[in-house]
Amino acid sequence: MSHGHSHNHPHVHNDLRGRNLLISIVLNIIITASQIIGGLLSGSLALLSDALHNFSDVLSLVVSYVANKLSKKQASIYRTFGYKRAEILAAFINASTLIIVAILLIIEAIKRFQHPEEIKTGLVIWLSLIAIIANGASVLLLKKDSESNMNMRSAYLHLLTDMLASVAVLIGGLLMKYYQIFWVDSALTLAIAIYLIYMGYDLLKSSTKVLMLFTPDHVPIQKIVDEISAFDAIKNVHHVHVWQLNEDEVHLEAHIDFHHDITLSQFDEVLHNIEDLVLIRYHINHVNIQPEFRKSDDKHIIVQD
């Protein structure tokens, strides 16, 4: 006998996310195209690397957009969880690309340090200004959702670092124009890349944890087992699994040994108390319990199947 319950989440919010992502995609395609042309015309590596970065943004936003759409699809016999993990997968892909782009930027910047080149600065300044405005708009669109959703956070980070990159390109353009300091172009590229790795790593780590079904950080398994074991009817709690499906759902699965051969209605009452306990204290919203009486199985909390 197993039992679980779920909570419905409003979809309006999700549709808004999709719309904001779409607007950001269009803005970024415009920036990328203008920066590639500008970078080739002016000879600025910072502009071209910014364009590459923007292009990776377009890709990451498309991945996020598709994941956002997929996550709304209904579950079926073949996909009993639906596509709820799509957004976590998107965050993982985007975090990986952030780090790869950063490493490529570092390699380019180091090459440029050794051979600084003269750059046509007028174009650089104007194009970076346009990019700052367009990216700034995208960043503001995604900011709110980035706090509660890993997928939106990955898209937001791509855009934020992009905006910073454009600010750096602008500063570089101004310094080159008025002071002829051409190494600034490389120095700024390097600084942006290091920041990218720092931000991307965190996201890569958290999305990997979810994909690997690791216990969420906020769930103290031993403590939960102790609290459930404290119920009078319960003799032992074992074979526990806790995992995160996506950002909204945390699942708990366990076998529970009872002192007496209780009725189903008595078990339901105990189950209800367990659900309330873990939901209120630990935000676990799916509970699946296997009741047992005098069953000879492994009684350890963690059982490796």
Characteristic terms for this protein:
elongated, mainly alpha, 3 strands, 305 residues
What structural class do the secondary elements suggest? mainly alpha
Radius of gyration: 26 Å
Q: Percent range for helical residues? A: 55-70%
Quick one: how many beta strands? Answer: 3
What's the shape?
A: elongated
Question: Describe the biggest sheet?
Answer: 3 strands, mixed
| Helix and strand sequence | HHHHHHHEEHE
Mean of pLDDT: 86
Distance between the termini: 20 Å
Q: Taking strands numbered 1, 2, ... along the chain, how are they ordered across the largest sheet?
A: 1-2-3
Low-confidence parts: 4-10
Number of helices: 8
**Strand percentage:** 5-15%
What is this structure, in a nutshell?
With 305 residues, the chain is mostly helical. Helix content is 65%, strand content 9%.
